[in-house]
Amino acid sequence: MAAEAVEFCRQLIRIDSTNTGDPATTGDGESRCASYIQSLLAETGLEGQWHEKLPGRGNLVVRMEGSDPEAPALLVHGHTDVVPADLADWTVDPFSGEVRDGFIWGRGAVDMKDMVAMTVAAVRQLRREGFVPQRDIVFVADEEIAGEYGARFLVDEHPELFRGVTEAIGEIGGFSLQLREDLRVYLLGVAEKGVAWATLTARGTTGHGSIVPNDANAVARLSAALARISSHEWPLVLGPSVSALVEQLGEALGRPLDINRLDDELDSLGPLAAMLRPGLRTSTAPTQFHAGYKTNVVPGTATATVDCRIAPGTDDEFKEQFMELLGPGIEVAWEEGRSLEAPASGALLDAMKAAITAVDPAGRGVPFVMSGATDAKAFSRLGINCYGFSPLRLPENFDFAGMFHGIDERVPVTALQAGTRILHRFLSTQ
Predict the structure, then answer these.
(1) Which CATH class is domain 191-337?
(2) Domain boundaries in the chain?
(3) Which of 17-31, 72-86, 143-157, 416-430 has the lowest mean pLDDT?
(4) What is the pLDDT of residues 370-415, one digit of tens each?
(5) Under CATH, which number does the domain 2-172+374-427 receive?
(6) What is the pLDDT of residues 49-58, one digit of tens each?
(7) 3-state secondary structure the chain
């Protein structure tokens, strides 16, 4: 099983499934990945359903039937598309799937062809063992960017595929960070921050740079608004997920964490802080600014974009405060997806934690808030509680966060092998 996971990951990486974000320039790599997965599962007797909104953007949905048709079903989802990669920037060919220095190298190695490969390998092993789950398990390989041809398309046009599904696992969660020689913390995604991309437009007077005053200058007005936004300190949001994190992380460490000094407490934990801190509060990051065409001409309009990531449960109040920070005279257009928050305790999380400890006795699972956005945004609209659980036992000091969309993306072979065993153990309890 572990060997298959490595080989499947390499083969998936070798299929260039780059998603440029433009249907005209995105090829058929996703369909080729899904077809490869379909052939591997068909060898075990599992036949999937194929759904394609656009040629080349294939979605595969496979249901493993359980012994109790009345039991709530579980969804396991993963996407096969990847962001672009420039060969000139990489140490190896980003679509080679090369194994070097104990790593599988290539675009998608951690985002997220590793999880897709682990899932396929674990399912094949379960089928070899003659395992029949108690509840139906639904597996989805789709595409991610906005989900127009993947998760969102399936939810909107084929919701019957997810009949009975109440819980789901997917990306960004289940990876380990070593705190001590005898303690590795595995972060389990129980919540996901909201996404609100704001496009700001300021309008003013067009004229000569020596004449138009700053109170009529669109660039000055928009710059002042961005300064207020970027300097604002968003407060800690102690919702159910963060409260559970504080409590369970303290239990794992053997000492309570001081909630009044949470940032300092996290700083003392080294690399763990970089993964946990973004989930504690809302963030607003200006990302683009466009205005003008000549040094001595004041433009009549200025535009900017702000990437806002909203603490779970605060979507509505965030917008009110954001508009106050902007001030008058700024137009705003939003592209958004609301925050998600699933229960931070229960049988599913207990099964994740038990599977981790069974494979890695030094491992402890704790909940955390994911700062990125996943296909869970789409699946949650069906009332599904979504969790991040793509298990990997990572080596100490491995820059896991830097691998996402990064140059020389790679996943440790041993992490993939251990993750496959954890996932197999978890699925065998469902």
Answers:
(1) alpha beta
(2) 2-172+374-427, 191-337
(3) 143-157
(4) 988 899 999 999 999 999 999 999 998 888 888 988 999 999 999 9
(5) 3.40.630.10
(6) 999 888 888 8
(7) CHHHHHHHHHHHHHCCCECCCCCCCCCCHHHHHHHHHHHHHHCCCCCCEEEECCCCCEEEEEEECCCCCCCCEEEEEEECCECCCCHHHCCCCCCCCCEECCEEECCCCCCCHHHHHHHHHHHHHHHHCCCCCCCCEEEEEECCCCCCCCHHHHHHHCHHHHCCEEEEEECCCCEEEEEECCEEEEEEEEEECEEEEEEEEEECCCEECCCCCHHHCHHHHHHHHHHHHHHCCCCCCCCHHHHHHHHHHHHHHCCCCCHHHHHHHHHCCCCHHHHHHHHCCCEEEEEEEEECCCCCEECCEEEEEEEEEECCCCHHHHHHHHHHHHCCCEEEEEEEECCEECCCCCHHHHHHHHHHHHHCCCEEEEEEEECCCCCHHHHHHHCCEEEECCCECCCCCCCCHHHCCCCCCEEEHHHHHHHHHHHHHHHCCC
